[in-house]
Amino acid sequence: MNFITRKAIIDQLKKDLIGKDSYRGVTLTYSWLANQFGHFSLGFIPTIIVFTFIKNKPGLHYPELWAAFGVWGAWILFELYNFLGPLLLKLPSGRSSLKNINYTFAPAWSNVAFDTVTDLTYFGIGALTGSLFCNYHGQMLLAALLLVVLVAYPAYYWYTTKMYIQNAEYPFQLRLSQWSRKIKDEHKQAVIEFLDNRDQGKHMLIFGSKGSGKTTLSVGIATEASIRSGCCSYVTAVKLLSMFFERTENQIENMNNLWNWRNCNLLVIDDINPGRPVKGDIISTQLFYELLNNVDCGPDNIKHIKDKNIIWVMGSDDPTTLLEEKWQDLLQQIGIERSNIITINLDPAA
Q1: Which of 258, 257, 263, 184 is nearest to 217 (CA)?
Q2: Using CA atoms, how far apart are residues 270 and 236, in angstroms rounded to an integer?
Q3: On the chain, which terminus has fewer CB atoms closer than 10 Å, C or N?
């Protein structure tokens, strides 16, 4: 289903542009709009300031053009350094997503480059608009309008991408390249294949003790899926257990987001069990299945669990309790083929 429709975008724009964020909260889409206005301003204001200083300089023709292209050029050089630094110079970058040089998972460089070009376009629009305020030129107006046309698709892409991310309700923002912990090569490959998979019905069990990075890894994977226009949802196990008793029609009518756990493409179920140092199962496979297969909504729940991609964030895999085997058996009991179940253990001794 296409949840990000024209109506959904317009409704989100109304929420972002009309109303005080002090009582409603700041959304990712609102932050993106504010960020691009900031880029516009960083092109617009310095252009006017530079023009003020150089407009009476003897022998300098068209100071408004020198100011605009000088400011825009400075921002281009800054962003090139910011983007190419980690690639060529191995220097820390100013972007939080590029701070680690030794990546466990490589950044999506094409996506980062697209973001950089989008930022530079807004810098350029601001600089050219500033020059028009200093001294009008028809050619500069056409150039500014051309940049506005060129940035239309990037604006649509990034704004809708923020909608995909914020509707997933992740507990924090993290891209997969920011996850810097150690992981076995076969598990790393399994993560990449899970993310690149376009089929539904794949299930990944992530085991690990407290602090092993299982939640951050799951959020990183799902965030990349959201950036690829996937409808993802994040929910804790306890909250999901209560949702098992909500009928599909009632849940869709009452939900505030564009989608929920039933009709998303990728579901992250977090905090199923805490893991070491806490021993024992807080949510056992038997309890999970009893609540999943309840009298009112059981068949519908099982269908939605079976037919979507799910990341199960587990506790520690204790060989004495056969936790991994128990959850694999549960998934197979639900109707999921063993070949569609992937297991990853983040504990070093595993």
Answers
A1: 184
A2: 5
A3: N
In terms of Cα–Cα distance, which of 274, 178, 177, 164 is closest to 225?
164
Amino acid present at 192: I
Peptide bond into 348 cis (omega under 30): no
Q: Quick one: DSSP state of residue 96?
A: G
Q: Quote the pLDDT of residue 99.
A: 46
Contact 263, 1 (CB under 8 A): yes
CA 198 vs CA 253, 269, 331: distances in Å: 28, 20, 20
Q: Which two tokens stand for residue 204?
A: 């990944």
Contact 43, 71 (CB under 8 A): yes
pLDDT tens profile 154-169: 999 999 999 999 999 9
Q: Are 241 and 235 in contact (CB under 8 A)?
A: no
Q: Is the pLDDT of residue 226 over 70?
A: yes
Q: Classify each residue of 61-98 as buried b or exposed e, where b means 16 or more C-beta atoms within 10 Å of its C-beta.
A: eebbbbbbbbbbebbeeebeebbebbeeeeeebebebb
Give 221: exposed, middle or buried? Use CB within 10 Å, 0-12, 13-18, 19+: buried
- Residue-wise pLDDT for 96-129, tens only, equals 444 445 788 988 889 999 999 999 999 999 999 9
Q: How far apart are CA 196 and CA 58, in angstroms?
A: 60
What is the distance, to the nearest Å, from the Cα of residue 121 to the centroid of all Cα atoms in its chain? 22
Strand partners, 266: 232, 309
CB-based contacts of 78: which residues, under 8 Å, 6+ apart?
A: none
Helices 109-134 and 138-150 sit at what angle, rounded to 10 degrees?
150
Residue type, 344: I
